[in-house]
Each structure stands twice: as structure tokens, then as C-alpha cells.
Amino acid sequence: MPDRDIKSPIWHPEPETVEDVFDHTYKEKAGPKPPSVIVWRNVFLMSFLHVGALYGLFLFPSAGVLTWIWFFACLLFSALGITAGAHRLWSHRSYKASLPLRIFLAFANSMAFQNDIYEWSRDHRVHHKYSETDADPHNAVRGFFFSHIGWLLVRKHPDVIEKGRKLELSDLKADKVVMFQRRFYKSSVLLMCFSVPTLVPWLVWGESLWVAYFVPALLRYAVVLNATWLVNSAAHMWGNRPYDGSINPRENRFVAFSAIGEGFHNYHHTFPFDYATSEFGCKLNLTTCFIDFMCFLGLAREPKLVSREAVLARAQRTGDGSHRSG
Fold first, then answer.
1. Where is the Fatty acid desaturase domain (predicted)?
2. Cα separation of 69 and 86, whole Å?
């Protein structure tokens, strides 16, 4: 892992990444809020998914050992498609990745099935730029349910759509892997999220097709979804704020564990361009370990890292007093 004491304190916004920085000039429109419009198709699909996932949990003990291993392998692979891919690489440009690694992460992202890379990254940049306002896609001020899953069950607030259209997304449009995945996203999801997790156990080691569908496919998909959603909900509500006590995002180690390193959220919203998203290196941060390994192999390079001095200075100036240097 890069040494914090050697790196320069790059926590100030860089010109090409200003779209990720919170916009203090944004003001919510006066007057009554627009009514929520329920998207019943999404309500039905999410209900079906979670009922199927609960059934998959019931079937889990009856699955073979190889299917259990496959379940966790698919879970980790698809989670990396969000954490190392859509989030740290494409949303925040916190490191650079070679073409083979970008292709690998695009396939992993399709297995995660949380919108294509382009749309996920656009919405995440809007989330950072307008966090906890009407322009935030999963505004935590609207409560746990809304920030966790409710935002996917209703039409977006008009400000989310408006601000998303105004973002500079030329880096995403210039990435051929991103645009290829966007073009063939539905096919890639059918292949990676449902077909591969189901067919491999059935064809390779003779697992029941029924179990293979409900455990490595549906249950795994629901687990990764909810782990990601906890970053939007729980990590914006519960935990301490050692780096900036004026913002909602919190340090939540349970979320960090479940989302393979994405729960150190007060740090991340304070220093969004740090590739590690936390002070703690690989501790509870498997995504950082993965990126470090990719750098070792020469498949990733130039990870951005905030210096220890910058972290301590920020914590002393704006934290809630809970920071402990070590």
C-alpha cells in the first residue's frame, strides 16, 4: 500500500474532478415538495427478488459445499464491480486501471446489476455534489427506508434529474469499456447476474438447478444490493464523524465489513478522491487490498492518497472530536 507519509496532501479538489465536490451554493426550491410517484414495476420486482432471496436463504443449508464456495465467489466478484469499479474507479477516478482490469470490473459490475457503470457513476457524483438535499438521489434526510431502497421505488426528484444532466461526464463517455457495457447492459446482466451464477453449479458439479437459481443467483444478488444500500442509509445515520462533524455521513464499521470497505463514510465524503476511502488501509477494507494487489501486478496505477498530515489537520479543524490518530 502507498505510504501516507510520502504522498502529498491531495485532498483539495482537482480541476478535472470538481464534479464530485459538495456544492455549497445549491439551494433547495422554496414551496411544497413534489409528490412521490410510485414506480409499481420496481415495487413488484424488488418484492419478488427479496421473497426469492428469503427462499434462497431457506435453501442455503441444502446446497453443496462447492455451491457455497461459488456463492461467496460470486458475491465478492459482483461486490468488487461496485466498490473497486463503479465507485472508486469510474465515479471518483481515484486510481487508473488497465484495459484488462476495466473489462474485468465491467463484467463484475454487470453481475452486481445496480444500473450500468455510466448511470451509477453519474448518480453517485450527483449524490456527492448535492448530498442530503433534494438533488441527492438517495437523500438520507428523507429517512432510512427512502435512502436504503425507497428511492428506487419512486420517480426521481426533478432536481436529481436536472443536476445529473448538467454534470461533466466526458471521462465516462470517452471510456470504451463503459460505453460498450452501457450499450449491451441488459444482455450482460442476463448473462452475468443470472445465467452464469445459476448454470455453473448445475452444469459443472451437478447442483440442483432450483438451488442454483435461488442461492448463487437471487440470494447473492439481494445480499450485494443490500450491502451497497447500507452505505446510503446506515452509513449516513449511525456512527461517529471524526473528519467533518458538519456532514451526515458516518464511520460505520459494520457497513464497512458488509460492503467490503465502503462504510468509512465520513472519511470518504471528506476526502472523496482517496482510493482507500479510509485511514485504515486494508483493515476491514478488502476493496483497498484488491486495488493494492492490482497495482502490484501492474494492472492499476496512480492511486490517489491523502497524507496523514492532511487527515489529522482536517480532523482537528472540523471533526467531532472522536478521531484517534495511530
1. 68-272
2. 25
Distance CA 241, CA 244 (A): 6
Q: What is the pLDDT of residue 243?
A: 94
Q: DSSP string of 218-273?
A: IIHHHHHHHHHHHHHTGGGTSSB-SS-TTSS--B-HHHHHHTTS--BHHHHHHSTT
Average pLDDT of the residues in 225-230:
98
Q: Is the dihedral of CA 108, 113, 118, 122 positive or negative?
A: negative
Q: What is this structure's pTM? A: 0.93
Structural Rg of the chain based on CA atoms: 20
The terminus-to-terminus CA distance of the chain in angstroms comes to: 17
**Chain center to CA of 159:** 22
Helix, coil or strand: residue 154: strand
Rounded (10°) angle between helices 158-166 and 117-129 = 110
For residue 242 the three cell numbers come to 471524526
Q: What's the CA gap between 231 and 95, in Å, rounded?
A: 21
Query: For residues 201 and 56, is the Cβ–Cβ distance under 8 A?
Result: no
CB 112 within 8 A of CB 81: yes
DSSP 300: E
What does the pLDDT look like over 152-199, one tens digit per residue?
999 999 999 999 999 999 999 999 999 999 999 999 999 999 999 999
Residue 28: count of CB within 10 angstroms of its CB: 12
Q: Which of 166, 138, 143 lies closest to 154 in space, CA to CA?
A: 138
Each residue of 50-70: pLDDT tens digit? Answer: 999 999 999 999 999 999 999
User: For residue 247, what is its C-alpha cell?
Assistant: 456532514
| Residues forming a β-bridge with 251 | 240, 264
Contact indicator for 311, 280 with CB cutoff of 8 Å: no
Distance CA 77, CA 214 (A): 18
Q: Which amino acid is at 98?
A: S
Residue 221: the pLDDT is 98
